[in-house]
Write a structure and sequence with these properties.
The protein is built from 13 helices and 17 strands. A 7-stranded mixed beta sheet has the order 2-10-9-6-5-3-4, with helices on both faces. The structure holds ligand T4K.
Length: about 375
């Protein structure tokens, strides 16, 4: 539908999973069938751990059945308790994993440009009960990992990063999974690299592997000893074999997404009232999402209006991450959840819109989406 302003015939979603050729997946699955080994640290699992350590440039990695369980175990493995300082501008899983560990989330405001936790505001939120900082590399933009580490060192706090959106991100050539004590990656179907459902923890302290791997396997050390109250966080062999096939396609997918990102930036930069997430110097991008911000005064229409209008053209964008986690009924009574404490978060969450972004999105469709945005602005 190049340059004709009618709705798309098929829905255009915010993302689509990277789908390898089915026969390649089946080929890989044959190895699982032949081995009659379906889960519990099988060959595919071991192979994916090794390959991901290389790809992510990290010294240690443990696979999980999803990113949420991985984060729950990250807190358990570091024995985090009391209060943890985190961001309200994130997916529900981030504060929920604290609640599941009986930890109080303390919401800290975000930087107005990167949309990540603002390190300059962290110190004022530290109390004697604070044990850790849980940062999120939102949309793959790295948190200010250096400042956060300085604060953590000064106050003796642990640092956990939620890198659900930051697969492949590097800061000055260093894999993002090397910062803080533990980093979590999500391999959900909607992520650039995926295992349908899945996740991983990465960490610099190799000694943590033993504890983390026990925690994800019920605390079972051997047939005679169960040494801690663990849970079932294991990735199975079907997930791992899918991951091995998908991993081979990630570079090709990144090239396609890079072209889409460039085209969006070129065509949308002409539109007053639309801005992008800043690209930080020395950072290799995740190419996970393409979020824009709509300034209602300058664009002339609200983000919510644009979101609804786009649906009429069969374009399904997302308001990630609306509502703020601090506004969920389970957290809104916390003192740190007050809007007075979180002015930047409240501004950002009104403006953000995540546009369709995935390798199979044709460039002429990207052009049409941009045209439609222009039409919505002037109508
Ligand atoms: N921390 C952060 C910051 C996160 O963003 C996430 C997950 C986590 C932690 C937790 O990690 P996991 O435990 O999930 O590993 C999706 C994902 O379910 C979720 O993993 C992700 N963040 C979040 C940002 O996005 P929804 O509710 O938006 O998903 P859904 O089903 O609406 O999918 C979005 C679009 O993707 C659909 O409109 C169409 C497309 N899609 C989706 C699926 C599942 C497909 O084309 N095929 C598919 O199979 O949460």
């Amino acid at each position: 539908m190049k340059n004709t302003i009618v709705e798309f015939d098929e829905p255009i979603f915010v993302t689509r999973p990277l789908m390898p050729e089915l026969n390649e997946v089946v080929e890989k699955l044959k190895e699982v069938w032949d081995a009659k080994w379906l889960t519990n640290n099988g060959k595919q699992h071991q192979s994916l751990e090794d390959k991901l350590m290389d790809y992510l440039k990290v010294p240690s990695l443990s696979l999980f059945n999803n990113g949420t369980i991985a984060l729950i175990i990250a807190c358990q493995s570091l024995r985090i308790s009391g209060e943890v300082i985190t961001t309200p501008f994130t997916f529900a899983a981030t504060p929920h994993i604290l609640a599941w560990n009986d930890i109080n989330p303390i919401f800290c405001d975000i930087d107005p440009l990167t949309m990540n936790i603002d390190p300059d505001k962290i110190e004022s939120m530290i109390t004697p009960k604070t044990t850790a900082i849980l940062g999120v590399h939102v949309f793959g933009t790295p948190c200010d990992v250096f400042k956060i580490q300085e604060i953590a060192n000064q106050y003796g706090l642990k640092v956990i990063y939620d890198a659900a959106h930051a697969f492949g991100v590097e800061v000055d050539g260093k894999g993002i999974g090397n910062f803080g004590d533990i980093t979590m990656f999500s391999f959900h179907a909607t992520k650039l690299f995926h295992t349908a459902e899945g996740g991983a923890l990465t960490y610099g302290d190799k000694h943590l592997k033993n504890r983390i791997d026990l925690l994800k396997n019920f605390g079972i050390k051997n047939e005679n000893e169960v040494v801690m109250p663990g849970i079932n966080g294991k990735m199975n062999e079907m997930q791992a074999s899918l991951g091995l096939v998908v991993l081979d396609l990630v570079e090709e997918e990144r090239i396609k997404r890079e072209k889409i990102r460039c085209l969006y930036r070129e065509l949308l930069s002409e539109i007053e009232g639309i801005s992008f997430v800043p690209e930080l110097e020395g950072v290799k991008s995740s190419l996970q999402y393409f979020p824009i911000r709509i300034n209602e005064n300058k664009f002339g229409k609200s983000r919510d209006f644009v979101y609804e209008e786009l649906k009429k053209y069969n374009i399904f964008t997302r308001k990630y991450f609306y509502p703020l986690c601090s506004d969920y009924p389970c957290y809104s009574q916390l003192p740190s959840a007050s809007s007075y404490n979180l002015p930047n978060s409240h501004q950002v969450v009104k403006e953000i819109l995540t546009l369709p972004f995935f390798g199979d999105l044709d460039l002429d469709k990207v052009e049409s989406i941009c045209e439609i945005l222009k039409v919505i602005k002037i109508r």
